[in-house]
Specification:
10 helices; 188 residues; 0% strand; mainly alpha
Length: 188
């Protein structure tokens, strides 16, 4: 049921395929981190749920082309907690909780909803944060054009140690600087 909700959200949000891309972008890094088969399997189904809480947001907010008001920013920032409440209602999805609740936390502690810092952020969320940000950067949005993958990778590098886990960011950049051509061929 939550998977169907996540897909419907992507249709409403005009981000079709975002969750699957986030999972696929995160997987090579998870393998480098030594995750076992079961954990990789969890990543594949849980990562696409990371934004499920956006179903609780007003539709006009998701595609707003201009700057957000302070109230709108607060509403957007409510989606991780809203998603966590949805996940908690269904026992079989509890493994998705770190992906859903903490994917907007920052390595430096300036994220939300809990302001966690460094290794206090679950590794699942640290990894998804990078893949989520990268996919958002390379995808067109109503308020900006897509960045090139080179520019997006440079942004990930620049955010290492502030926004992103420095080790995971380095692994991500290494994986996708070399593997981007393979990704493009597979995606077409």
């Amino acid at each position: 049921m939550l998977v169907s909700i996540a897909r419907a959200l992507e249709e409403r949000d005009h981000t079709l395929g975002h969750g699957a891309r986030v999972a696929a972008l995160a997987e090579p890094v998870a393998l480098e981190l030594g995750w076992d088969r079961e954990r990789i399997r969890s990543l594949r189904w849980a990562a696409p749920l990371h934004d499920v809480g956006k179903v609780k947001l007003r539709p006009q907010l998701l595609g707003k082309p201009g700057p957000l008001t302070l109230e709108e920013v607060a509403e957007i920032r409510s989606h991780p907690a809203a998603g966590a409440r949805l996940v908690m209602e269904m026992r079989r999805f509890h493994d998705a909780l770190p992906y859903v609740l903490f994917h907007h936390e920052r390595w430096d502690g300036d994220g939300y909803p809990a302001g966690l810092r460094g290794r206090r952020i679950p590794i699942e969320a640290r990894l998804i944060a990078i893949a989520d940000a990268f996919d958002a950067m390379i995808s067109p949005r109503p308020y900006r054009r897509a960045l090139s993958h080179e520019h997006a990778l440079a942004e990930v590098e620049e955010g290492a140690g502030a926004q992103f886990d420095p080790v995971a960011a380095e692994l991500f950049v290494g994986a996708w600087a070399d593997g981007w051509d393979i990704w493009q061929r597979a995606a077409s």
